[in-house]
Design brief:
Pfam families: AHSA1 (PF08327). This is Activator of Hsp90 ATPase homologue 1/2-like C-terminal domain-containing protein. It comes from Sinorhizobium americanum. This protein is an alpha+beta fold. It is 30% helix and 37% strand. It has a seven-stranded antiparallel β-sheet. The radius of gyration is 15 Å and the shape is globular. The model has no long low-confidence stretch (mean pLDDT 94).
Length: 147
């Protein structure tokens, strides 16, 4: 069974614009469709509410792990049925956004890994759902930064 998802996309936008779209919580919220309560800060929890059609009202929780402007942004998010679960011990996956400047803009690689930490009975469902989700989100960020 695979333990990670990887999406690669070429964006016709400068790396600084892509970095802002990923790391500014309001810009991130626009293309990802989530209303976040505050900025991404390394070592801190960011909370909010999903606004994506069909998923409205689902809580967002993440812990920002790395912000190395303008090349790497990484966070961890829990996958628990218990909304009160302790994020530090809940099963989680890590999402990384790697940016590389190109002659035409920015190459973005999105990687989500750590699915092996999820309960076996939910793992395949989460991988399939997130695989589709990252396809959509890759197109969403493309439309956002190229507008």
């Amino acid at each position: 069974m695979k333990d990670s998802i990887e999406k690669r996309i070429e964006l016709a936008a400068p790396i600084e614009r892509v970095w802002r779209a990923l790391t500014d919580h309001e810009a991130f919220g626009e293309w990802f469709r989530v209303k976040l309560g505050g900025p991404f800060v390394v070592g801190q929890i960011t909370t909010g509410e999903i606004t994506y059609p069909g998923h409205e009202g689902i809580e967002w929780t993440s812990v920002t792990e790395r912000m190395e402007a303008p090349r790497l942004f990484a966070f961890r998010w829990p996958h628990s049925d218990d909304p009160n679960a302790d994020i530090s011990s809940a099963p989680s996956t890590r999402v990384e956004f790697h940016l590389k400047p190109t002659t035409k803009g920015t190459h973005l690689t999105i990687t989500e890994s750590g699915f092996g930490s999820l309960p076996e009975e939910r793992r395949e469902e989460v991988i399939c759902s997130n695989e589709k989700g990252w396809e959509i989100q890759a197109q969403n960020i493309k439309a956002f930064v190229e507008a």
